[in-house]
Amino acid sequence: MNAVTGPLESALAELLERFHAAEAVALGRAISLVENERPGFEDFLHEVLRVGPSAARIGFTGPPGAGKSSLLSVVATIWRTRNEQLGVVAVDPTSPYSGGALLGDRIRMSDLATDPGIFIRSMATRGSLGGLATTTKEVIDLMDAFGFDRVLVETVGVGQTQIEITAAADTVIVVLVPESGDAIQAMKAGLMEIADIFVVNKADRPGADRLVKDLRQGLHLRVGTVLESEPVYHGLDLDRIRRKESGEEFKGPGWSPPVLSTVAQSGEGVEHLMDMIEAHRSWLEESGELEERRRARGKVRIQDVVDRELRRTAWHSDALLAVLDQGLDRIQKGKDTPYSVAWDIVNRLLR
Ligand SMILES: Nc1nc2c(ncn2[C@@H]2O[C@H](COP(=O)(O)OP(=O)(O)OP(=O)(O)O)[C@@H](O)[C@H]2O)c(=O)[nH]1
Ligand SMILES: [Mg+2]
Fold this sequence. Notes:
With 351 residues, the protein is α/β, with parallel strands linked by helices. The protein contains 16 helices and seven strands.
């Protein structure tokens, strides 16, 4: 278990120095350190995160093949022409069925390929229940701390991963396409609550206008009953959303998610999308919502790390594994149940 107290071991101290000197190689190494949970990774994160978040974190989520990578590449290219430094994390990259390409491949086809001002990392999802793995969020933190102006995150929208993007991004862009279903489905999937901006991409295809219209209508209807029937998602505080909807405890004017349409291939609608991203950023900062979101993220992170440490401490302890083993014997003899054994282990762990 990491102490997160003492000084860093010398190799990590050197890595930290190079990380602070903004060497891209050091960022790559730091990401591997964290991804592989190598000894000292939490101490390293502790040092790195002392500065606090500063990048604008922008999430792109939506169904497979919606055009998330295509849109991300277009906006990234424009930000690069303004000399912004960009970090990109692609989570759970493409399935063979979506018609999408790996984000890296898509970018390799563009001018961004040889651009040192953009750093791209693809990651497999490893979170439980398909959620966004703690490791992924830690990599996003590393990119933020490295000093990028923006950190862009692409996640394929399937269940929890999609919802949990809120635990990693300040601005969540939900990308839908005419083929991905109607507004009712989007409401059922909880997208109305997580989207800061809706994009209907592939607006060159039939049905796009209809979807835009339905989404706008759906957004007007979403208060109350829809929220009541939603399950509580990890990392998403529905109470807070309810208070926000009812105007309680909410300082600034609210944000109504705009519904935009784009054609990623031609770039149509992309400038408007970028304006909305800026507008959302200003709102986040002025309303106090950015602080609230960061605080909510901090809470989730603390809980994640406590969970991880407890689990590791329990299952890496020979003594506790022995208790488990003996417990299994007693269960077989009818003297114990999984619950009595679990409580025994928890009590010993807390002692
Ligand atoms: N007609 C049309 N095709 C598009 C548009 N945007 C993207 N595509 C195509 O849709 C396919 C999927 O695009 P991607 O950008 O890889 O989609 P994605 O959402 O990143 O896909 P996954 O990462 O696999 O979920 C590609 O063949 C794109 O060329 C658009 O606006 N109109
Ligand atoms: Mg993609």
